[in-house]
Amino acid sequence: MSSPLLSVRDLSVAFHTDDGVVNAVNDISFEVHPGETLAVVGESGSGKSVSAMALMRLLPSSARIQGTIEFDGRDLLGLSPRDMRRLQGNEIAMIFQDPMTALNPVFTVGNQLVEAIRIHNPKVSKRAARERAASMLALVGIPDADERLDNYPHEFSGGMRQRAMIAMGISNEPKLLIADEPTTALDVTIQAQVIEVIKRAQEATGAAMILITHDLGLVAGVAERVQVMYGGRLFETGPTETIYYRSRNPYTRGLISSIPSATARTERRLAPIPGAPPSAINPPKGCVFRPRCQHATDECFTEPGLRRLDEAALHQSRCHYAEQLGEMDTAASGSRT
Amino acid sequence: MFAYVVRRILSTIPLLLVGTFIVFTLTAISGDPLSRLATADVGEEAYERIIELYGLDQPIPIRYVNWMSSAIQGDMGPAPSQGSQPTFNIVMDRAGNTARLAIPAFFFIAITAITLGVYSAVKQYSKLDYFVTGFSFLGISLPTFVFGLLLQVIFGLWFFDWFGVRPFYVLGMRTVASHGWLDMVRSHVLPIVTLWLVITASESRFQRAAMLEVINSDYIRTARAKGLPRRKVILKHGLRNALIPLVTIWAIDLGLLLGGSVVTETIFAWPGLGRLLLDGIFQQDLNLTMGVIMVVSLLVVAFNLLADLLYGVLDPRIRYE
Ligand SMILES: Nc1ncnc2c1ncn2[C@@H]1O[C@H](COP(=O)(O)OP(=O)(O)OP(=O)(O)O)[C@@H](O)[C@H]1O
Ligand SMILES: [Mg+2]
Fold first, then answer.
1. I want to staple A89 with a disulfide (CB 3.0 to 4.6 A). Which of A20, B28, B110, B227 is the partner?
2. What is the pTM for the complete model shown?
C-alpha cells in the first residue's frame, strides 16, 4: 500500500470549560491515503467535527490537543501558524455543514472565490483568478457561472451555496478535502446531487477526502473505508463493504439498522438506537456504549480496546465481543444493495 | 432608492409636527414670559404692546401655526432674551460653535471605539479586554459632569500647581480670528476630550458586542479555513460585518452631538446649542427654545435617515424600494 497522505496518531482533544473538562476526542488513530475517501460516521457529539477541526488547526485556543498529525511528511501540530496557513485552503480544504452561514454575506461569491485562489497564488492576476473561479462554479454545476460570480450569497439557494463552498474548497486543488456533514443542512431532495458534485470535484482534483456524516446510508458508493465514532472514540473501522455487511460492533449495527431504506420490507420499523449519547464530561465507566448496548455484560465495565479482526488490521472494532457477535441480522444487512 | 428617500422624508414631517407642537405647548404653558417685566416699571402700555407683538393673547394652537408657518420660511421670530436678535441667526451661530466640538469629537470617538471594541473582542478576557471593560463601565456610570469637572481640576488647578503652566483653557471658546491658532486649540481640547471619553465608553461596548458576535460566526471560520492571515480575517471579514449594526448608533450619536451637549457646554462655558437651549428655557424665551428644538430635531431625523441609507450600502441583503 502507498504511504499515507495523512496519519493521525493518538489524537485527543479536551476543552476546559466552566462545567469541567470536555473530552471531545480520545486517542483516535487513523490514516488517509492519497485519493481515497474515508467516511467518518457517528451520532451528534461523537467528536467528528472536533477531530476535523483539529486537522485544520481551527479549534479555539481553549482546546488542549495531544497526539500527532502527520500530513504529507509534515507534523501539522508543530507547524507555525504561518506555515499552517499555507496549507489551509490550499493543500487541505474544508467544506462546512451549514452553507447558509458559511459564506460572508457582505461579499460577492466571486470575491470570496477569488480571494481563496489569490491568497495562495499571489501571482495570479485578478482576471485569471476570476476565470478560474468561474470554471470552478461551472464544474460544481452552477449555470451561467460567470454572471453568478457577481451574486451575493443571499441570492443563491442553499444547494447552490454549498456548491459554491465546494468550488472554493477545490479551487486550489487540495490533496485532502474534509467535508463536514456537507448535506445535513440541505433539503433531502438535493442531498444526493450535492454528494454527486463532491465526488465529481474530488475526481477532478484527485484529492483524498474525509467525508463526515451521521448518515451511514450516504456513505455507500462514495467511501472506500468507514470509520465509526462514538463518545469521542473510534468504535469500528474497516472497508465500507465490511462495515455494511460484516460489522463486528453493536453500535455500528445499531446505526445500520436505523438507515431508512427503500428496498427494505415496508413493515420493518426503523430502529434508532435507544438512549442518548454519553456525556463528554462524565462518560460512563468502562465501555462508553455499555448503557445503550443490548449485549452488555459485566465485562463491559472495563473499557475494551480496539481489536484487530483481520491480518492487515484493516477491520478493527472496539468491543469485548467483537469476534463472538453473531452474523448480522439479514433484515439490516440486506437492506443496502 | 430615490423613491425610498422621498418617502422617508415625507414620513418624518408628521413626526416633526407632533414633536414640535408638544414642545411648543409645554414651553408656552410652563410660565409667564412677561413675569420678568413685572419687576421693572414698564407701564401698562408696553405690556400690551409686547403681548400684541408676540401674539401672546392667541390660543396656543394658533400661536403654534403662526410660529411654524414663518419658521419653515427661515423666520423664527426675534429672541427676546438675546436683545431681540433674529432667533434663526443666533441658532445658526451657536450650531457652528457646537459643531466645533461635535465633529472632532465624533472623529476621535469613531476611531477609538472601533479600535478598542475590536481589540477587546478579539482578545476577549485578556488584560486589555478587562481594562477596556472597566473604562467603559466607568464612563457609562459616571455622569458627564464628573469627567468635565475632573479635567478642569486636573488641567486648571493641579497642573498649574505642579508645573506652573496651564496647557488648556477650562472655560470659554476662543477662535482663530480672535486669539490665533494656539489659543483656539487650547480652548477646544478639554470639552472635546470630555465628549470623547464619555461617548467612547458606551460606543466601544457596542463595537465589542458586535465584533464578538461576528467573530464566532461561520463565515469567519470559513475565512480562517482559507488560510487568510488573521489580520485580514478580522479586518476584512469581521469588521466589515460588525460595522453594520454600529452605523445606526453612530448616526444617532452624531445627530445628538451636533445638537449640542447641555452638560459639557455648561461646564466649559461653551456658547453652543446646548447652552442656548438651557438659556431659552430658563429665560422663558419661547422663540429661542423652539428654534433650538427645531434644529436639533431636524438633525436627529436627518442622521437617522442617513443611517438607514448607509445600512443599505453596507449590507447587500437590504434593498430599499
Ligand atoms: N469549543 C468547545 N468547547 C467545549 N466543548 C466543545 C467545543 N466544541 C465541541 N465541544 C464538545 O465536543 C464534543 C464533540 O463535538 P463535535 O462537534 O465534534 O460533535 P460531532 O460529532 O461533530 O456532532 P454533530 O453531528 O452534532 O456535528 C461535544 O460534546 C461538544 O459539546
Ligand atoms: Mg459536527
1. B227
2. 0.85
